[in-house]
Design a protein that fits this description.
234 residues, Beta-lactamase, 5-stranded antiparallel beta sheet, 11 strands, 8 helices, 35% helix, two-stranded antiparallel sheet, alpha+beta
C-alpha cells in the first residue's frame, strides 16, 4: 500500500448502532494514522499482559502495564508504546506482528502497522477502517475509561521533595466540553496531520467520529465540535 504525499482531510461520522454513515469525506483514502496507532498497541497489550504486570524501565526502575497504558492513552507517550512492544516474550517484531494479525482478524485490508507509536509514516489506514478499530477498542473497558480521563496526576521530585502535577489529555479541549465522549485518541505527525478518533454516545446510540489530516489542532478541534454539535443532533 502506498499513501499519497499530500492528502485532504478525511472525515467520517458513523452510527455504529444502526450501521449508518452520517458524514463521509475521503473516508477510503489510505493515509498515515500517526498516534491513532496506539489504540491497536493498547488492545494487543491488554490481550498479552496483565495490568499489574511490572515492566523494567532502565536499570533500576519499573512501571506496571497499567501505568504505561495510561501514559499511552492519555498523554500519547511514544516511549510507553515502544516499551510495551519490546516487552513481548518473543520481542518487538512479534508484538508488531500481533498488531497486524489483529488488524487482519478484524477484516482490515488497508491498515498496517510498522511501529507501536505511530511515528512511522508507513503505519497506514483509512477513516472507514478506523471505525472498526475504534469500535473494537470500545469493547475494552480499560481503554474507554482511561482514554477519556481529562488529566492524570504525576509526582515530580523538586529539590528532593515530591510535588503532584496534573498532565492533561491530548484531547482535553473536547473532553472538557463534551461529557458524552466515551473513547478518545489523538494523533499527529507532519505527514499525517492532526487526527482524532472518538466514540460518542447520543440518544442511546453510539457514533464513531474519525478526523484525519487536519492542518492544525485548532482546525481539528473545531471540526470535532461541529460534528458533535450538528451531525449527532439530526
Amino acid at each position: 500500500m502506498v499513501a499519497k504525499a499530500t492528502l485532504p482531510p478525511s472525515i467520517l461520522v458513523y452510527n455504529t448502532t444502526a450501521n449508518v454513515t452520517v458524514v463521509s469525506t475521503n473516508a477510503d483514502v489510505i493515509r498515515p494514522m500517526a498516534s491513532i496507532t496506539k489504540l491497536m498497541t493498547a488492545m494487543v497489550s491488554l490481550d498479552l499482559y496483565k495490568l499489574n504486570q511490572p515492566v523494567r524501565i532502565g536499570k533500576n526502575s519499573t512501571l506496571t502495564v497499567e501505568q504505561l497504558l495510561t501514559n499511552l492513552l492519555v498523554r500519547s507517550d511514544n516511549t510507553a508504546a515502544e516499551i510495551l512492544a519490546q516487552n513481548h516474550s518473543s520481542g518487538r517484531v512479534a508484538f508488531l506482528q500481533a498488531m497486524n494479525d489483529k488488524a487482519k482478524l478484524l477484516g482490515l485490508i488497508n491498515t498496517e502497522y510498522h511501529d507501536a507509536s505511530g511515528l512511522i509514516a508507513t503505519n497506514l489506514t483509512t477513516a472507514h477502517e478506523l471505525v472498526t478499530v475504534v469500535s473494537h477498542a470500545g469493547t475494552y473497558p480499560f481503554i474507554k475509561q482511561t482514554s477519556t480521563l481529562t488529566d492524570i496526576p504525576r509526582t515530580l521530585i523538586v529539590k528532593k521533595k515530591p510535588h503532584i502535577i496534573s498532565l492533561a489529555n491530548t484531547n482535553k479541549t473536547i473532553l472538557f466540553e463534551f461529557d458524552n465522549v466515551t473513547l478518545s485518541k489523538t494523533g499527529f505527525t507532519t505527514k499525517a496531520g492532526r487526527c482524532v478518533v472518538m466514540l460518542v454516545d447520543n440518544k442511546g446510540e453510539q457514533y464513531a467520529i474519525i478526523i484525519l489530516g487536519e492542518p492544525t489542532k485548532q482546525a481539528r478541534d473545531q471540526v470535532a465540535k461541529n460534528l458533535i454539535q450538528t451531525s449527532l443532533t439530526k
